[in-house]
Amino acid sequence: MPRAGLRVCAVACTGLMLSAQPGAAEIPAETAYVLNSLSFLYHGMLVFFMATGFSMLEGGLVRTKSVSTILLKNVILIAVAMIGFYLVGYNLMFYNVDGGYWGTPRAWSPDQTDALSQGAAPASIWLFQTLFAVTAVSIISGTLAERMRLLPFFVFVAFMSCVLYPVQGAWGWGGGWLAEMGFLDFAGGTHVHSAAGWAALTGAIVLGPRRSRFADSGEVRPMAASSLPLVTLGTMILWLGWLGFNGGSQGSMDSVADVIAIANIYVNTLMATCGGIVATAALLQLLRRKIDLTMVLNGALAGLVSITAGPDTSGIVGALLIGAVGGCLMLWTTHLLLRLRIDDVIGAIPVHLACGIWGTLVVSLHHPEGDIRVQLIGVAAVAVFCVTASVVVWIGLRRFMRLRLSQGEEAIGIDRVETGALAYPEFATRSVLPGD
Amino acid sequence: MPRAGLRVCAVACTGLMLSAQPGAAEIPAETAYVLNSLSFLYHGMLVFFMATGFSMLEGGLVRTKSVSTILLKNVILIAVAMIGFYLVGYNLMFYNVDGGYWGTPRAWSPDQTDALSQGAAPASIWLFQTLFAVTAVSIISGTLAERMRLLPFFVFVAFMSCVLYPVQGAWGWGGGWLAEMGFLDFAGGTHVHSAAGWAALTGAIVLGPRRSRFADSGEVRPMAASSLPLVTLGTMILWLGWLGFNGGSQGSMDSVADVIAIANIYVNTLMATCGGIVATAALLQLLRRKIDLTMVLNGALAGLVSITAGPDTSGIVGALLIGAVGGCLMLWTTHLLLRLRIDDVIGAIPVHLACGIWGTLVVSLHHPEGDIRVQLIGVAAVAVFCVTASVVVWIGLRRFMRLRLSQGEEAIGIDRVETGALAYPEFATRSVLPGD
Amino acid sequence: MPRAGLRVCAVACTGLMLSAQPGAAEIPAETAYVLNSLSFLYHGMLVFFMATGFSMLEGGLVRTKSVSTILLKNVILIAVAMIGFYLVGYNLMFYNVDGGYWGTPRAWSPDQTDALSQGAAPASIWLFQTLFAVTAVSIISGTLAERMRLLPFFVFVAFMSCVLYPVQGAWGWGGGWLAEMGFLDFAGGTHVHSAAGWAALTGAIVLGPRRSRFADSGEVRPMAASSLPLVTLGTMILWLGWLGFNGGSQGSMDSVADVIAIANIYVNTLMATCGGIVATAALLQLLRRKIDLTMVLNGALAGLVSITAGPDTSGIVGALLIGAVGGCLMLWTTHLLLRLRIDDVIGAIPVHLACGIWGTLVVSLHHPEGDIRVQLIGVAAVAVFCVTASVVVWIGLRRFMRLRLSQGEEAIGIDRVETGALAYPEFATRSVLPGD
Question: Reduced to 3 states, what is the DSSP secondary structure of residue B291?
C-alpha cells in the first residue's frame, strides 16, 4: 500500500520512469501497464472480499439478537466509506502526489496526454486505495456492536473515511512527513490497523460496555457468539483477502523483481498466520486445557495484522515468529481489556491495535532500512492523532445525538430496534434473560 | 459480454486483426492472447462464484422448511444449464459469429490453423459465455421457490439455456438485428437480467403465490427469511462476482485502453452498488423508521443490475445516481408486486427485471452512441419474446406435469417432499402453523 | 501439479529453457516469468480457498455438538501442514529436482545468479506445492470427525505433511520412479486424493465408528448433518477452488499453448462436475424417489476428483462421462462402506479414494501416452505405501496416546470436551438422546 502510494508519488512527483525499476526494463511499457493494472484489480478484488469476511466474522460473534444490525452496518459502511473517500478522502490523502481537490482524483482528468506514464490504470489505483479505506472502517464496527445506534455510527464512518484515515495515511503513504523520515509500513500495520484500532478503543470507552457485560463484582459475564461457523468463514475469507491486501501493496507487477516480491509476500503472509494459530492454540492448551475456536481464529488474524507492516522483508521464519508473538500479544490484550472493563465485542482492539503496533515496531529488526526510533515516532504520531480526533468526534456526536440504545432497547436487542427483523426468525433461541 | 461476442464477431466475420485496436499494437500478439484468455478465465471464475452467491441468497431468503430444495435447485441448474448451453445454446447464440451446429462450438475444431487470430483461448470465451447462461438461469429459481416441483423447474432450465437465453442473446450479442441497430447492452442488463426477469415473472403468475401468502382480505402475510447471514453472504458474493461479470465483458485485456476500461468498469460497478445501498437505506429510514436488512441487500443488487447495461460509460457520479434510482425502483416494484398479489419469494423481479430495464434505457443518456428509441426497441423485443416463450412453456409444462406442490405438501414443506432432508434437522424451529 | 513439478524438474535438471516450449518463444522471458508466477499465485489463491471449502463442508456435515472442533481442526491443520511441509516435506518431495535438505528450499537461496532460468518466482512455486499438501491433509479430517481427539490428529497431520504426502508425491511429481515409468496424474487424482483417501480409510478402521452409528442388528442409525447451507457453501467453494487446483497444475502460463490448455482444463473441470451432479441426482431419483442434497453435493465432488488426474486431455464429453461414472461410483462406495460398518462422517472415502482411483485409471483411455498398466502400478504403489505407513502411524499413535473420546465424552459431544464452546450456543437443538 505504501508502495502503491509511493509508486504514484514516484511517477507523478519525481518523474521517474517505470523502466528505472530493476528488471522492468525488459518488459515493454504497454505490457507493464496492463500487468500493473491487473495487479491492482486482482488484488483489489481480494481486498474487497475482506468486507465479506468482516461481515461474517462480526455477524457470527455477536448474539443472535444483534446479528441483523451488525450485518446491515457492514454493508452500509462500504457505501458510506467509498463515497466519502471518493468525495474527500482520496484527494486529502494523496494531495502531495496527485494534486486536485475533493471529488477530482486528478488521475481521471481527461487531459492526461500520456497515460503510460502513470504506470497503471488510474481507476485501478483508486480502487485499491479506496478498498483500504473500506477495510479500515470495517474494523471498528465489531467493537461497538450490540449497543451503538446506526446513525451516529455512520457519521463516524463518514468522518473516518473523509478525514481520520486519509490524514494519517497521507503522512506515510501520501508523500508526507513520516514518509520523508523513512517510516516503514508496507501494507498498513499502522496506517490501517492500529489507526482503526485506536478509533475502536476510544469508541468503546466513550460508549461504555454492553449492560450486564461486567457485574458489579468485577466478574465478566460470558456473552456467547451466535455462530462459530460464520466466525470461521469470516476469518478464512479475511485470510484469503489478506493475500491481496499485502500482495497488492507491492504496487507493481511488471518485473521479475516485483513478482518475486509478491510471491514472497504471499508466503510470508500465510506463514505469519500459521504462527499466530499455533502459538494461540498452544498457549490455550497450556493455560486452559481447552482450545477455544474463537481465540484461535483471532490468533490467525493477529498473525495477519502482525505481518502487515513488513511482509516483504520478514523472511519465512521471521514471519512465523512475528505471527506467533502477535498471537500471544492478542491473548494478553484480550485479558487486559476485560480487566479494564472495556467491552470489545469481537476483539478488534487486541487484534488490530496491539498487533498493528507490534508488527510496525518489529519491522525495524528485519528491514534493512528499519529504524526503531522512526517506527516509534510513526506509531506514536498516529496514536496521538487518532485518539484525539476520535475522542473529539465521539464526544461531539454524543452531544448531538444519542449514541447508544436505552436499557430497554438493549435488553430486547438492537435488531428489533434498528432493523425490525431478527436474523434467524424461525429458530428457537435460548430464553432471553433480563440482562442478556 | 456483448463485447465478448463482438470480439469473436470482429475476428471471425470481418477479419479485423486484434492489433487494430487502440494501443494493442504495442503488445505482441502472443502476450495479448495470454492476457485476453486470462481475462476470460479470471473474470469467468468470478462469474462462476456468483452461482454460490445466488445459492446462499436464495437459501437464506426462503423459510427453513424449503432451504434444502432451493439449494439443490441451484446446484443442479448449473449442470443442466451448462450441458444445455454446450449442446444447443452456444451455437444458437453465436451462429452468425462462430458457425457450426449444436455440440460443436467451431472454436474448438482442430482445423484452426491460426490460433492467434482468435485473440483468446476458445475455451475461455466459451467458459465466460456459458457462465452468463448459468447466471441468467440462476435468477429465476428464487422467485418460484417453496412451491414449484423440481422436475418441471429443470425442464424450464433446459429450455431457457437451450433456447430462450440464446435466441434473444443472439439478437444483441451474436451479431443479430439488435446489434445491427446499435442496441447497447454492455454486460446484460437486458439480455441476462430483464430476460430472466420476464421468465421469472411469467412463472410466478402461472404458478401462483404460495398458499396463505395473501389473505382473502388482501393482507400480505409475512414469511420470514430463514437466515439473514446467508442472505448477506450471498449478496456480498454476488457483488464480488459482478466485478467479473461486468469487467470481463470488456472482452479483451490486451491494451492500455482495455485495462483502463476494465478498471473504470470495476469502479463504476462498485459505485452503483453504493448508490443502491444508500438510496434504499435512506428511503426505508424515511418511510418506515426501520432499515430492513433484506431490502438494503436487494438495494445493493438493484444497483448492480442497474449499471450492468453500461458500466463502461456511466462515469462515477453517473453510476452512483443510476444505482440510487435502481434502489428506489426496486422498493417501488416490490410494493407493486405485493399489491398485484404476485409472490416473488426473493425479490428477483424488482431487482433483475425492473432494474435491468431501467439500466438499459438510461444507457442512452450516458453512452455517446446511445439512442433511447433503439434501447426501447431492444427492451421491448426481448420482453415480447421472453414473455411469449415463457408463457407457452410454462403452460405447456402445466399440461404435462404437475408444476406445484399440493396444499398438504406445501404445508409440510418442499424439503420433506422433494429431498427428504431438512436443512437444519437438529435445530428447533418455531412450531409450524397450518398455513405456514 | 505434476506439470508444476516437472517444470521445476525440466528447468533445474535438464537445463531446458522455457523458450523450448511451443509458442513460448514469442513471449519475452521477463514477461513469461511474470505470467508464470501470476499463474501460481492466482491459482494458488484459489487452492487456498479450498481450505475454507473443506471447513464449511465438514462443519455442515457433522452434528451440532461437533461443529466447533471440526472447524478448529481445519484451521489448525493448515498451520501444521504448512510448517511441516516447509521444514521437511517440500525438500523430501523435490529432492531430485531442487536439491537441498529440510528447511532450505534451494529455490530461495540467495546465490541464484539467474532468476529467469527458474521460469517463475520460487516462492510462488513453493506456495502452490504447499497448498496441495494442505489440501491432501484437509481431506482426512472429516472422515474421522466427532470422535477423534485433537492431539493425535495433529500428530498425524504432521506425519502426513512431512512424510506420507511428500514421499509418494516424489515418485510421480518429484522426478521419481513413477515419473520415469510414465505414470500420468495431472493434478493429483492419485497423489493427492487417493493418497489422502487411503489415510482416511485406515484411520476410520483403526479408530472405529462413532458409538451408536451401527446398531448390533446391523442397522445404520442416521446422523443428520447440522447445516445443509454450510455443506452447499463448502462444496461450491471447493468447486471454485478446483479451477485453481487443476488449472494451476498446468505449471506455466507463458504461451498460447499453455493458456489454451488452462482454458480447456477449466471447462473440463466444470463439465466433469456437471456429470457428477446429473448422474447422482438421476440415480437417486430412480432408486429412492427423493434427491438427497448431501449426496448430490458429494456427486459434484466425485466429478471433480474423477477429472483431476486428467483434465487436460479428457475432452468435454469425456469429462462429462468421467464425472458421471464418478458420481455413480461414489454412491456405490458410500453404500459399501455402510455395509462394511466403516464410519466416514463426511463421505471422503467414496469421493476422494474411489474417484481418485477411477480418474487415474481412466486417464489411460483418453491420454495419448496413457498406459493402463502403468496407471495401475502407480495406483497400487501409492495404495500399498499409504495404507502401510498410515496403519503403522495410526497404531503407533494408539499405543502412546488415546486416539478417541470415551463413551461419555462422545455422548456429550466433542465440542464440550475439546474446545469448551458449542458452535451455536444460543440455539435450541433437539434433545440429545443417550446415544446421539
Answer: coil
Q: How far is CA A280 from CA A14, C190, C217, C263, in A?
A: 46, 35, 45, 42
Question: Hey, which CATH number is domain C2-105+121-419, 3.90.740.10, 1.10.10.60, 3.30.565.10, 1.10.3430.10?
Answer: 1.10.3430.10
pLDDT at C15 over 70: no
Least confident segment among A348-362, B56-70, B104-118, C22-36: B104-118
Average pLDDT (A280-306) is 97
Predicted pLDDT at B16: 29
Say if residue C97 is exposed, middle or buried (CB neighbours under 10 Å; 0-12, 13-18, 19+): buried
Contacts of A367 (CB under 8 A, 6+ apart): A184, A310, A313
Interface of B with A in 279-308 (CB under 8 A): 281, 288, 290-294, 296-297, 300
B79, B81, B87, B89: CA torsion to nearest 10: -160
Chain A neighbours among C 103-142 (CB < 8 Å)? 108, 115-116, 121-124, 126-127
Domain ranges in chain C? 2-105+121-419
**Cell reading at C249:** 497444475
Question: What are B52's three cell numbers?
Answer: 454460490
Q: What is the pLDDT of residue B26?
A: 77
Q: Which residues in chain C have Cβ-Cβ distances shorter than 8 Å to B426?
A: 63-64, 224, 226, 429-430
- Which candidate, B191, A150, A242, places its Cα nearest to that of C48? A242
ipTM of predicted complex? 0.93
Q: For the residues A260-272, what does the mean pLDDT come to? A: 96
* Homologous superfamily of domain range A2-16+37-101+120-213+232-404: Ammonium transporter AmtB like domains (1.10.3430.10)
Residue of B49, B63, B76 to mutate, testing the C interface (most C Cβ within 10 Å of its Cβ):
B76
Sequence letter at residue C274: C
Nearest to C259 among B33, B49, B76 (CB): B33
Tell me, what amino acid is at A116?
Answer: L
Question: Would an 8 Å CB–CB cutoff place A64 in contact with chain B?
Answer: no
DSSP label at residue A192 = I
What's residue B99's pLDDT?
A: 61
What would the DSSP string read from start to end of A253-271? -SSHHHHHHHHHHHHHHHH
Q: How far is C98 from chain B (nearest CA, A)?
A: 28
- Specify the pLDDT at position A114: 66
- The Cα B334–Cα B344 span in angstroms is 9
pLDDT digits (tens, 9 = 90+) for C209-234: 999 899 888 789 888 899 999 999 99
Residue with cell 528450499: C105
Query: Nearest chain C Cα to B40, which residue?
Result: C263
φ and ψ of B220, to 5 deg: -95, 125
CA B23 to chain centre: 32
Place of cell 452461482: B51
The answer to whether the Cβ–Cβ distance between C124 and A259 falls below 8 Å is yes
Most confident of A93-102, A113-122, C51-60: C51-60
Chain B stretch 149-208, residues whose beta carbon is closer than 8 A to a beta carbon of chain C: 150
> Cβ contacts of residue B179 below 8 Å, gap of 6+?
B2, B6, B9, B171, B172, B173
* Residue bearing cell 449478496: B235
Closest CA to B231 of B56, B63, B350: B56
Q: What pLDDT score was predicted for residue B429? A: 86
What is the Cα–Cα distance from C375 to C83, expressed in whole angstroms?
32
For chain C, the straight-line distance linking the first and the last C-alpha, in angstroms and rounded, comes to 42
Q: Is there a contact between C226 and C67 (Cβ–Cβ < 8 Å)?
A: yes
Contact yes or no for A424 and B260 at CB 8 A: no
Q: Which fold has domain B2-15+26-108+115-415?
A: Ammonium transporter fold (1.10.3430)
Q: Which helix (H) or strand (E) segment is B366 a member of?
A: helix B355-366
